Amino acid sequence: MADIAETPFPAPAGSPRQDAGVAALRLRGLTKRFGEKLAVAGLDLEVPRGSFYGFVGPNGAGKTTSLSMATGLLRPDQGAAEVGGIDVWERPLAAKRRMGVLADGVVLFNRLTGEQLVTYAGLLRGMDRETVAQRSADLLRVLGLADAADTLVADYSAGMTKKIALASAMIHAPELLVLDEPFEAVDPVSARTIRGLLDSYVASGGTVILSSHVMDLVERMCTHVGVIAEGRLLASGTVEQVRDGQDLESRFVELVGLEGGEQELSWLRL
Ligand SMILES: Nc1ncnc2c1ncn2[C@@H]1O[C@H](COP(=O)(O)OP(=O)(O)OP(=O)(O)O)[C@@H](O)[C@H]1O
């Protein structure tokens, strides 16, 4: 497995985020079993501060299960997760204060309007109403949701729902964003806006870990990448290290293997 290089984006001097040498996110021996299925098998992962980390793997590899354990949504059978050196399961409130989470498949309070949902997220984080109102308006505008601010989230499209969940994860400007499939169902214009937001967030000292199936996007956006299959980490490091002279998609296929080989369906030929 390739080594993880040092972060290329040091935190701003004097920043409270600057705990030298402490990873933004550290997973040690994370394990989860669902009945007979070992979904995550002793996962060790370090996400350096200031990195833009892509977490990739085939369907069913264990990405969502790992990120859910890392963010305090799903209790691990074994192992530990730390955010900025704080154990997520021993000190959940302190750890959760430091992160913003876009979870996959978690039901939102969809009888609220988009604006109410983002406002609720900000107030839950203990922010004052004025700041919440300002940031909520900014997020809705930047994400192209201003016209849908008063629409119930239940009536949002899949892409709009993803964007309002992302806004709710960002409103308190956490030092770590954990985003499960943030670009899924999002149109290309919004995807570009989100990429821009995340790029400047990372450039200012924030850390992002996102899961994605789009290798091209991970290769272009991310500084680091971890490849998981069958609950195990196959490779991790800078994108350069992991792709090892190939494009990331080819390297990914080389690492995880071609599902079903080069088989064809003889009956699907017209
Ligand atoms: N609540 C659950 N009960 C039973 N099995 C589960 C549960 N959640 C996940 N699994 C199983 O654990 C494995 C890992 O699932 P997980 O959702 O973490 O994969 P993933 O990498 O996020 O997949 P995808 O890319 O398709 O979203 C899969 O085999 C899945 O069927």
TrEMBL record:
GO terms for molecular function: ATP binding. InterPro entries: AAA+_ATPase, ABC_transporter-like_ATP-bd, ABC_transporter_ATP-binding, P-loop_NTPase. PROSITE patterns: ABC_TRANSPORTER_2. Keywords: Antibiotic resistance, ATP-binding, Nucleotide-binding, Transport. It is found in: Cell membrane. The keyword Magnesium does not apply. Residues 25-255 form the ABC transporter domain. It comes from the Bacteria. It is a peripheral membrane protein. This is ABC transporter ATP-binding protein.
